[in-house]
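[job 4471] stage=fold_predict status=RUNNING
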Amino acid sequence: MIIFGTKGYLYQLAILTLVCGQCGNPSAHTLRKRVTKFTLFFVPLFPFSTKYATQCTFCGAEQKVTAEQAEQLQAQAAGGQGGQQSHGQPQQPYRS
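[job 4471] inference complete, writing structure tokens
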């Protein structure tokens, strides 16, 4: 008996300030990489699918991007922040 399947991995590569194509607001967008790997006996062996996308944090719209566009956006994020990832402070949950 051979057990095989797939497993997905989601990586957040950068956070960028862009104008959303869906809602038109200038807001933070997360650049994400989704990798699907083939597994054999629950051990991930090799990736067979890699996709990139940006997601608007204001409206939640997701837009697919190519690998070349993702590299450019990642370089833009690294160049704009002096090569360091800068994440804001955690926010408190909304209370009414």
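[job 4471] summary: The CA atoms of residues 52 and 68 lie 10 Å apart.
[job 4471] exit 0
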